[in-house]
């Protein structure tokens, strides 16, 4: 019986593991700052993160979209504010895009 | 954690996705689908799935206007982003 | 439908009291409810389009359509001239069930023209 019962708290989860950071915590720290979003497709976006939810749908301000076209050219598109669907996000880089 | 960690940059108010949905009803928007096609129109309604109802909807492929619909329903799973288009059209 | 939702936004607003047809659009799907028994235009994945009378639908956008005209557009590249050949195949289908996950856009008939 006792062996099956799950521990009420994972060892060290209270405060010891300060080095460990949850992914959602990392994103939470980016709110108000520039962020670089790489989509699963050939699209990337940069902007200021205004908020997000549990699905990592995001509200971004002052957005630049970089769209890699079939011929290798990159089309950019600027937008004031967007709601980005979290479904198609591949990666996030806090701090924004280096050359943008 | 610590109060000292608070960023000193001018913080604008935090806006979660559900806040955004509440503010953009009735406004002109661009809805970009994952296929790359854009739909522009006035946002009549939107739900948590990002299903969208647009009024005066135009279908754009890049800079080409492909079609016009009086009203249109867009299924949320195809939505890449919804952009609040500012200014008059 | 797709699993992910936006935060706590209510996905299923109350359908209101039974009885008269409520003509307001409280949620996006109401737009489709108002098109019941009318001819609608449905855009599907894979360059497929349907025009038909909407008999029924559900929250997944599964739909039952009658007297449907289906058109499928294909783009072929000529291997010698590299010209793009756009072909549209059309066919009539008297009665059709459409699975919701393929639906991209639903447009009611143009009311004011």
Summarize the structure.
Chain B has 89 residues and is mainly beta.
Quickly give the CATH architecture of chain B.
Roll
Characterize the quaternary organization of these chains.
heterotrimer
Q: Pairing-aware structural class of the strands and helices of chain B?
A: mainly beta
Count of the separate structural domains of chain B:
1
Helical content of chain B (DSSP H or I, runs of 4+): under 10%
Here the CATH topology of chain A equals SH3 type barrels
Q: Are there runs of chain B of 5+ residues with pLDDT below 50, and where?
A: 1-10
Strand elements of chain B, count: 5
- Could you give the order of strands across the largest sheet of chain B? 4-3-2-1-5
DSSP strand content of chain B: over 45%
GO cellular component, one term (chain A): Lsm1-7-Pat1 complex
GO molecular function (chain A): RNA binding
Keywords (chain A): Acetylation, mRNA processing, mRNA splicing, Nucleus, Ribonucleoprotein, RNA-binding, Spliceosome
Function (chain A): Plays a role in U6 snRNP assembly and function. Binds to the 3' end of U6 snRNA.
Describe this structure in words.
Chain C: Belongs to the snRNP Sm proteins family. Chain C: This is Sm-like protein lsm3a. Chain C: One of its GO terms (molecular function) is RNA binding. The complex is a heterotrimer of chains A (100), B (89) and C (113). Chain A has 100 residues and is mainly beta. Chain A is 8% helix and 44% strand. Chain A has a five-stranded antiparallel sheet with strand order 4-3-2-1-5, covered by helices on one side. The N and C termini of chain A lie far apart (58 Å). Chain B has 89 residues and is mainly beta. Chain B has one domain: SH3 type barrels (Roll), CATH 2.30.30.100. Helix content of chain B is 9%, strand content 47%. Chain B has a five-stranded antiparallel sheet with strand order 4-3-2-1-5, with no helix packed on it. The N and C termini of chain B lie far apart (46 Å). Chain C has 113 residues and is mainly beta. Chain C has a single domain, classed as SH3 type barrels (Roll). Helices cover 5% and strands 45% of the residues of chain C. Chain C has a five-stranded antiparallel sheet with strand order 4-3-2-1-5, with no helix packed on it. About 10% of the residues of chain C have low confidence. The interface between B and C is medium-sized, with 28 and 33 residues. Strand 4 of chain B pairs antiparallel with strand 5 of chain C, so a sheet runs across the interface.
